[in-house]
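Hi W.,

Here's what went into the run:
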Amino acid sequence: MPADKTVIRADIEAMLRAVLGDFGTDLPIELDSTFRDDLGMESLDVVSLAGRLQSRFGDSVNFAQFVAGLDVSSMAELKVGDLVDFVTRSLDQVPAAS
Amino acid sequence: MTLVRVNGVTLHVAELPPVAGDDMEPPTVVLVHGMAGDNLASWYLTMAHPLAASGLRVLMYDLRGHGRSDRPARGYALDDFADDLEGLLDHWGVTGRVHLVGNSFGGTVAFAYALRHPDRVAGVVAIDSAPPMPEWFARMSARLTRAGADPGRVGAGAAFARRLRDVRRLLSETEIVAELPASRLPAPAEFAALTCPVLCLYGRDSRVRELAGRTEQLLPQARSVVLDGAGHSVLIERTAEVRGHLLTWLRDTAPFVTTGSEGERHG
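Here's what came out:
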């Protein structure tokens, strides 16, 4: 069964709000929100997000590998939707537990 | 977020385990970031995964006064930073020889630790950095003083504002500007004890490169590589090349790092 994108999006939005703390309470988090300019995330927030993704999805979602493939400018332009797509793709590749 | 209490200070740490490693005791690398405005994310987002994928246990931390670590009012001499690293290695239970990779001031912290414990270090990689010596500390002091007036990198938005605020707090609410330049520095003769392999990467346009000659006098085994089209921020400006040099170097100095080597190393 393919991963449910709506559920993943809700998961990721919750993680982002947790990472952003007080900064993120009233912030709209859309699929086209950029991490840096729209959400005001600094690099350590991205590290914190990586830790939460690891806790939530385990090794099936390798966010560190995802970001290691980006240079500094593409990192700045990263959007919430990119992450949702990446997580969805990653989970789709995991063989279903039987 | 993982916080660890060592040496009287709470430090923010991060770890990536080796990918697909079956070694009981995988080779370990500690990545040390630079001064004022830098933090472990510079490593986490560039080198940490590729190193873990090569079979290394990758450890990172925010230096005291930086990132999400404590910002005590005092305790910013070089020895304090080396004590922190020593405490963390004990905390992490690193018993074998460790690889230390430092960017800018982080390289200096790596050298300071290696000079104390040459028997516990497998190798040092210093990125646009220098070992603890007066010429380098004079430059860092000048840089710290300037950073108080103008923190450099132009940027906008909330993330930049938070980074700026953190740098200002480090410089105005702590004694770093006075304590770091007053650090006890090792005598040149002490460098003879440090015989492990040393790799120094420099940006072609960085003024730190002017110290390469002195570094090679102190550490004759040091291999220097200059990367074109980069200044001091060579880790960010030339991430892919730095990554390539680092991986090649670690494979050469850590035979257990995976590339299908012929084994029989541990006997």
